[in-house]
C-alpha cells in the first residue's frame, strides 16, 4: 500500500458499528432521512446512558432518497473516534431500547459487532478497487451526505482546490487526534496543495427540518456528489481512506461530510444514458429551430431512444455541417454553419448536461456566455466597481474567439476539465469539435477553430477560457467577462493601458488577442451604466447589415440564434441574428412564428416586399414605450404652425436642389439649362407657401432634371422620355422604381423602429394614403440613387437582359435585383470625398433630428444633407465603388 511507512497515520484508531433500521410506518415521512436518523441516535444516546462528551456520528452505507419510504430498510454505520467498546455497546443498547417503542416508527432489524478500525484494515478491504496504476489516474470522492462549506458560493466553489481540501482534512483529524494528526499530515501539505481538484460536478443541496429540542427550523446543507482529485494519489490515498470513515467538514450532526472513494466513477457518461436529456433537447430545438427533427413517418420516442443508445454506447457518428460564406466584406467574415438535425439535437442534449458544471467552474466575475442576451449580473458588478472608486471601464472584445481557438489546445483543456472516467462524453466532444464540414462546392473548406453555430461552441469556449478567468480572478486584475467581451473597471483613464496590457498577456498565452477596433474606455455613472450608450438609439450596432431573402417559395425561420432560409429540405442560407439589422422578404414565401417573435423581441424590422421590391408592410415592436413615442410624435406634429411646416418642406426641396447642383451640373456639357432651372427653383422656393406650392416647385425641377440624368446613360436600351413611376413603361423607369423602393423600404423600417408615425410628413401631405414622412426623408437621397444607376448601367453591371418585358410592363429579373441590392448597400456605406458623412449616416442624422423633435428635445431642424462633388471624377468613381466595404447578404 502507498505511504504505509507513516507511523502516525497507522496509529490512528476508531470504532464502528453497523445497524439496519426499518421504517415501521405505512406512510412516507416528510423530513429528510438524515434528520430523522440524527434524532433517533441522539435520543438513543440518552437512553443508553452514554457519557457526556462522547464523540459519535454516523453515515449511510448507500445513497439516500430525500424521503423515508414505508417499510424500507436502511443500513447505517455509527462511528466513534475515541470511545471504548463498552461505550459503543451502550450506545447500540440505547438504540434498541428507544426503538422498542412502536411510537418511534422504526425497528432495529440488525446490529453488528463493535469493530476497531485503522488504516491497515480499511486498505485490506479496498485494495483491489483503489490500487493506483499510474500518474494519470484520479480518485473520486463521492459525497453521500452534504459537505458543509461556508460560505457556499460560486466564487468558493470555483476556487476550491487542494489547499482547501487539506485544510478540511487537517481540521477534521486534529479535532480528535491532536498533535498525532498534525505530525502525519504536515508533510503532505505540499502534495495536497499541488493536487488538482474538479469541484464543478458537486451539487449544492439544502434540506429543512423542524428542530427536535427547540422551536424553529434547522438546515442540512452543503455540497453533495462527486469530487475528483488528481495528483500524487499514492500519497493522498491513505489520508482519504481514513477520512472515508471519519468524514470531512466541521459538522458531525446528520452524518454530514460522508463520502465513498472510487478510482473509476463516471459522472457525465451516466447522463448520456438518460432519455430525459434527449426529450428536453427535442422540445427545446422544436421551440428554437425551424428544422425537422424527426424523419417523416418515424415515431418520436423510438427516434430519441435510438439516439440515446448510440450516444451512450459511444457509437455516435457526426454528419457533415454545411457552411455558408457571407459576401466579401460583410459581417461576420467567418462562415456560418448549419448542423444536421440529429447532430444539432444530440449536441443540444450534451450542452444541457455540461451547462451546470461549466457554470460552476467559472469565477464570480464571469456571468457566463449568453449569446444575444445581456447578463443580469453585469450592471450590479459595474455599479459595485463604480462605488469602490473605479468609475472608468475599459471594454475589450476577443478577436473572433471561435475561429482562433486551437483545437489541440481545446482538447487538452477538455482532458483537464472532464473526469477521466467519462470517456464516452470526452470522445463525443472530440468528435463534435472536429466534425466534418462541407461548403457549397462540395469540398471541405479550411475551418480552424470551433463552429460558431454549434450548440456546444459557447460552453467549449468557456472551458477553454477557464484558466484565463482563474488567473484574472487571482491576479489582481479587476475584470468582468461576458462571453468574448471583457469589462475592466479602472480608477482613471490612465490606468486603462496597463490593465489592457495584462489582459493581452493572459490572452496571448491562450493563442488569442483583442480586437483593437472594438476597444473603448467609458465613464460609468453612479448606477454602473455606460452613459455613452443610448438604449433606444436607432443606429444599428456596428457590423449589422440587412438580410434580403429573394428566393421564391423560401421558408424563413430560426436555427437557435440564427436566421435560417430553406426551401423544402434544401438549406439556402443562414445568418446569425446578432449580425442582422433587418429582414426584407421579397415575393411569395413563408416565415415562422418564432422568427416573428424574435424580431419583435430584438426590435428588428421585418419587411414584406413584392418581388420587385415594393413594400407591403413592416412588423414593428409592440410595447408601451413604442406607442408612447408614436403618441408624442402625433402631438408634436399637430402642434406645428403652418410656417414651421413650410420651413421643413422647403428644406427638403432645397436638398434636392443642392444634390442636382453637386453631382449633375458638373457632368453636363451644356450646363445652362440646369443652372437656370436650379436658380428658378431656388427663387420660387423662397416665396412658396403651403405644401401644394412647394410640391409644385419640386415637380417643375424634377421634370427638368429627369431627361438630363437619363441623357448621361450610355445605351439606347435605357432611354426614357419622362418619369412614370410604378408603370414599368421602359427599362429606366423600372430601374428607378426598384432602386427607390429599396431606399423607401429602408427608411420606413428605420422610421418605424424609431417610434415615429410614417404618415405624418411635412412636404408630402399627411392626408395622402401613403407614408408621407418616409417619402419626405427619401427626397434628399434620390440623387444618390440616380447617380448609382447611371454608373451601374454605364459600367455594364446592369444590362438590358437583366430586365424582361412581361405583358405590358418591364420587370427586373432576380439576378439584376441581386446586383442592385448589393450596390445599394455599398452606396449606403459610401462616404464621398469632401463629405463628412456616409449616405447611411446622413439618413440616420436626419432621422435622429426628427425623432428628437418628436420627443420634445428641441425645435425641428431639417437641414439639407451636405453633398459635394469630388474634385476628380475618377477618384469619385473609385470612392463610390469601394465605399465602406460592407455588402449586405442577399439570399
Annotate the secondary structure layout:
Layout: H1 7-10, E1 14-23, H2 33-47, E2 57-60, E3 73-80, H3 85-99, E4 106-111, E5 115-117, H4 119-130, E6 139-147, H5 154-159, H6 162-185, H7 189-194, E7 196-198, E8 203-210, E9 217-230, H8 233-246, E10 259-262, H9 268-272, H10 275-288, H11 300-312, E11 321-324, E12 336-338, H12 341-361, H13 377-387, E13 392-397, H14 401-404, H15 407-417, H16 423-433, E14 437-438, H17 457-474, E15 480-482, E16 485-490, H18 496-509, E17 520-523, E18 545-549, E19 554-559, E20 562-567, E21 570-576, E22 580-586, E23 589-591, H19 593-602, E24 606-609, E25 615-619, H20 624-638, H21 642-664, H22 672-687, H23 691-711, H24 731-753, H25 772-778, H26 782-794, E26 803-806, E27 809-812, H27 814-828, H28 839-854, H29 873-882, E28 889-890
Parallel strand pairs: 11-14, 18-22, 18-28, 19-23, 22-24
Antiparallel strand pairs: 1-3, 1-4, 1-5, 2-3, 6-9, 6-10, 7-9, 8-9, 11-12, 13-16, 13-17, 15-16, 19-20, 20-21, 24-25, 26-27
Helix pairs in contact: 2-3, 6-8, 10-11, 10-12, 12-17, 15-16, 15-17, 21-22, 21-23, 21-26, 22-23, 24-25, 24-26, 24-27
Structure overview:
With 891 residues, the chain is α+β, with helices and mostly antiparallel strands. It contains 29 helices and 28 strands. It has 3 domains: 7-265, no CATH class; 297-523, no CATH class; 628-885, Up-down Bundle (Four Helix Bundle (Hemerythrin (Met), subunit A)). The strands form 7 sheets. Strands 1, 2, 3, 4 and 5 form a 5-stranded antiparallel sheet that branches. Strands 6, 7, 8, 9 and 10 form a 5-stranded antiparallel sheet that branches. It has a 5-stranded mixed sheet with strand order 25-24-22-18-28. α10 (275-288) packs across α12 (341-361) and α22 (672-687) runs antiparallel to α23. It is elongated. The model is unreliable at 327-332, 526-542 and 866-891 (pLDDT under 50).
Amino acid at each position: 500500500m502507498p505511504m504505509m511507512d507513516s507511523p502516525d497515520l497507522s496509529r490512528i484508531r476508531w470504532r464502528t458499528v453497523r445497524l439496519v433500521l426499518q421504517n415501521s410506518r405505512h406512510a412516507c415521512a416528510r423530513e429528510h432521512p438524515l434528520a430523522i436518523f440524527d434524532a433517533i441516535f441522539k435520543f438513543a444516546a440518552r437512553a443508553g446512558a452514554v457519557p457526556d462528551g462522547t464523540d459519535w456520528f454516523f453515515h449511510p452505507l448507500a445513497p439516500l432518497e430525500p424521503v423515508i419510504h414505508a417499510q424500507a430498510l436502511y443500513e447505517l454505520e455509527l462511528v466513534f473516534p475515541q470511545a471504548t467498546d463498552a461505550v459503543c455497546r451502550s450506545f447500540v443498547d440505547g438504540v434498541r431500547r428507544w426503538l422498542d417503542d412502536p411510537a418511534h416508527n422504526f425497528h432495529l432489524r440488525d446490529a453488528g459487532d463493535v469493530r476497531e478500525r485503522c488504516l491497515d484494515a480499511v486498505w485490506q478491504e479496498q485494495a483491489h478497487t483503489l490500487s493506483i496504476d499510474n500518474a494519470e489516474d484520479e480518485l473520486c470522492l463521492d459525497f453521500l451526505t452534504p459537505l458543509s462549506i461556508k460560505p457556499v458560493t460560486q466564487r468558493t466553489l470555483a476556487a476550491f482546490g487542494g489547499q482547501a481540501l487539506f485544510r478540511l482534512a487537517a481540521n477534521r483529524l486534529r479535532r480528535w487526534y491532536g498533535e498525532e494528526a498534525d505530525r502525519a499530515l504536515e508533510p503532505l501539505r505540499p502534495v495536497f496543495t499541488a493536487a488538482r481538484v474538479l469541484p464543478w460536478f458537486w451539487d449544492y443541496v439544502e434540506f429543512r427540518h423542524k428542530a427536535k429540542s427547540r422551536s424553529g427550523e434547522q438546515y442540512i446543507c452543503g455540497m453533495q456528489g462527486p469530487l475528483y482529485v488528481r495528483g500524487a494519489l499514492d500519497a493522498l490515498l491513505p489520508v482519504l481512506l481514513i477520512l472515508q470513515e471519519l468524514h470531512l467538514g466541521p459538522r458531525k450532526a446528520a452524518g454530514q461530510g460522508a463520502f465513498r472513494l472510487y478510482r473509476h466513477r463516471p459522472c457525465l457518461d451516466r447522463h448520456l444514458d438518460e432519455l430525459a436529456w434527449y426529450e428536453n433537447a427535442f422540445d427545446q430545438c422544436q421551440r428554437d429551430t425551424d428544422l425537422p427533427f424527426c424523419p417523416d413517418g418515424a415515431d418520436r420516442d423510438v427516434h430519441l431512444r435510438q439516439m440515446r443508445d448510440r450516444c451512450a454506447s459511444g457509437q455516435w457518428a457526426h454528419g457533415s455541417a454545411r457552411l455558408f460564406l457571407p459576401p466579401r466584406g460583410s459581417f461576420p467574415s467567418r462562415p456560418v454553419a448549419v448542423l444536421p438535425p440529429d447532430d444539432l439535437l444530440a449536441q443540444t442534449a450534451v450542452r444541457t448536461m455540461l451547462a451546470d458544471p461549466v457554470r460552476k467552474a467559472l469565477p464570480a466575475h464571469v456571468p457566463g456566455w449568453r449569446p444575444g442576451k445581456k447578463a443580469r449580473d453585469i450592471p450590479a458588478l459595474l455599479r459595485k466597481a463604480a462605488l469602490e472608486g473605479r468609475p472608468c471601464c475599459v471594454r475589450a472584445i476577443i478577436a473572433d474567439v471561435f475561429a482562433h481557438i486551437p483545437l489541440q489546445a481545446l482538447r487538452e483543456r477538455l482532458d483537464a476539465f472532464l473526469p477521466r472516467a467519462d470517456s464516452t462524453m470526452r470522445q463525443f466532444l472530440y468528435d463534435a469539435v472536429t466534425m466534418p464540414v462541407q461548403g457549397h462546392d462540395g469540398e471541405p473548406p479550411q475551418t480552424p477553430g470551433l463552429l460558431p453555430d454549434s450548440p456546444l461552441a459557447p460552453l467549449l469556449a468557456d472551458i477553454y477560457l477557464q484558466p484565463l478567468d482563474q488567473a484574472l480572478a487571482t491576479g489582481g486584475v479587476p475584470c468582468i467577462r461576458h462571453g468574448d467581451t471583457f469589462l475592466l473597471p479602472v480608477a482613471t483613464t490612465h490606468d486603462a493601458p496597463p490593465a489592457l496590457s495584462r489582459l493581452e498577456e493572459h490572452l496571448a498565452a491562450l493563442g488569442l488577442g483583442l480586437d483593437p477596433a472594438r476597444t473603448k474606455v467609458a465613464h460609468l455613472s453612479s448606477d454602473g451604466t455606460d452613459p455613452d450608450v443610448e438604449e433606444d438609439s436607432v443606429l444599428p450596432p456596428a457590423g449589422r447589415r440587412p438580410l434580403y431573402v429573394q428566393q421564391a417559395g423560401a421558408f424563413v425561420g430560426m436555427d437557435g440564434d440564427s436566421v435560417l432560409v430553406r426551401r423544402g429540405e434544401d438549406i439556402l442560407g443562414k445568418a446569425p441574428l446578432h449580425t442582422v439589422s433587418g429582414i426584407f422578404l421579397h415575393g411569395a414565401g413563408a416565415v415562422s412564428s418564432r422568427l416573428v417573435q424574435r424580431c419583435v423581441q430584438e426590435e428588428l424590422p421585418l419587411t414584406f416586399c413584392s418581388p420587385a421590391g415594393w413594400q407591403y408592410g413592416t412588423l414593428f415592436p409592440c410595447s408601451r414605450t413604442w406607442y408612447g413615442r408614436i403618441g408624442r410624435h402625433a402631438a408634436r406634429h399637430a402642434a406645428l404652425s403652418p410656417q414651421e411646416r413650410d420651413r421643413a418642406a422647403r428644406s427638403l426641396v432645397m436638398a434636392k436642389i443642392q444634390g442636382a447642383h453637386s453631382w449633375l451640373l458638373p457632368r453636363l456639357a451644356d450646363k445652362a439649362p440646369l443652372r437656370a432651372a436650379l436658380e428658378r427653383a431656388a427663387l420660387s422656393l423662397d416665396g412658396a407657401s403651403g405644401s401644394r406650392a412647394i410640391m409644385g416647385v419640386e415637380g417643375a425641377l424634377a421634370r427638368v432634371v429627369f431627361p438630363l440624368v437619363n441623357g448621361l446613360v450610355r445605351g439606347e436600351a435605357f432611354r426614357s422620355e419622362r418619369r412614370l413611376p410604378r408603370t414599368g413603361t421602359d427599362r429606366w423607369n423600372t430601374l428607378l422604381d426598384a432602386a427607390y423602393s429599396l431606399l423607401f423600404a429602408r427608411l420606413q423600417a428605420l422610421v418605424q423602429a424609431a417610434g415615429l408615425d410614417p404618415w405624418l410628413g411635412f412636404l408630402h401631405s399627411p392626408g395622402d394614403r401613403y407614408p408621407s414622412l418616409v417619402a419626405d426623408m427619401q427626397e434628399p437621397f434620390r440623387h444618390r440613387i440616380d447617380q448609382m444607376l447611371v454608373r451601374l448601367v454605364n459600367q455594364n453591371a446592369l444590362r438590358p437582359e437583366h430586365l424582361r418585358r412581361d405583358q405590358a410592363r418591364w420587370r427586373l429579373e432576380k439576378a439584376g435585383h441581386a446586383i442592385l441590392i448589393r450596390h445599394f448597400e455599398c452606396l449606403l456605406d459610401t462616404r464621398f470625398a469632401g463629405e463628412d458623412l456616409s449616405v447611411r449616416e446622413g439618413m440616420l442624422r436626419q432621422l435622429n433630428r426628427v425623432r428628437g423633435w418628436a420627443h420634445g428635445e428641441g425645435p425641428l431642424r431639417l437641414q439639407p444633407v451636405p453633398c459635394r462633388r469630388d474634385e476628380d471624377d475618377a477618384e469619385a468613381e473609385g470612392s463610390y465603388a469601394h465605399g465602406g466595404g460592407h455588402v449586405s447578404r442577399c439570399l
